[in-house]
Amino acid sequence: MEHKPRSSRKVPMQVLSLGLPRTGTASMQSALQTLGYNDTAHGFDMISHPEIGAPWMEAVQAKFLGHGKPYGRAEFDALLGNCAAVTDMPCACFWEELMAAYPDAKIILVERDIEDWFKSFEATAITELFSKVADVIVNYIEPLIGSQIGPMNRELVYGFFNAKTPDEVRQNARGVYQEHYRRIREVAPKERLLEYRLSEGWGPLCSFLEKEVPKGLPFPRINETAALKVKIREVQREKFKAASVALGRYLVPVAAVGIAMWYWYRK
């Protein structure tokens, strides 16, 4: 599938919010947009931009399977378009590459109690991504409609969590979570790093980003588990609808040929 970037880069990448999914990434996206980072990347982008599934698959296979060229500044510029900030997966899983590609960007590390995080992550990213319905979509519908979003997300989760099965993802999740935060704290320049929890509100975030605190606006708190499940159902409906259209293109000619052959044999 040909990938067309959402836009060419016209502004510098300014913020890398590298907390793992289910740590408030949707809330962070909303907060960053409120502060003026109008194009902030999030995993939900794939719903409105399914074409980015293919280049993300290239990046995932290069990083975790050693297939192809690893992504660098040029590739991320094309993939992320005009984003001034990033959050959520897949970006958080490419934290090293993004920090190298955008060395002047500020880094935000949002952390959550590990057991609360695991409960939310297990109920969404694991359970939903590897469900029976997801199997049908990944194995049959997405190849039919030319989408790589489902397969890419599965390869990303397996690669990032050093797993080959959903159960191994569960077993490895807490250790990988802790290592992710440890490594970023170890590598990120202290003057460009903000360790942050959503409960702290606007103050520390605005001070770090040198922005004024929005007047009269509470800090956004989005229920990510609920929001993700809504998005997943939306994606599933759209994919089944697209599959019906694609099947129609094949079935109509096949039916026409069948009718023609029936008439021919009747002669």
UniProtKB/TrEMBL annotation:
It comes from the Eukaryota. Gene3D superfamilies: P-loop containing nucleotide triphosphate hydrolases. Keywords: Membrane, Transmembrane, Transmembrane helix. SUPFAM superfamilies: P-loop containing nucleoside triphosphate hydrolases. This is P-loop containing nucleoside triphosphate hydrolase protein. InterPro entries: P-loop_NTPase, Sulfotransfer_4. PANTHER family: P-LOOP CONTAINING NUCLEOSIDE TRIPHOSPHATE HYDROLASE PROTEIN, P-LOOP CONTAINING NUCLEOTIDE TRIPHOSPHATE HYDROLASE. The chain crosses the membrane at residues 247-265.
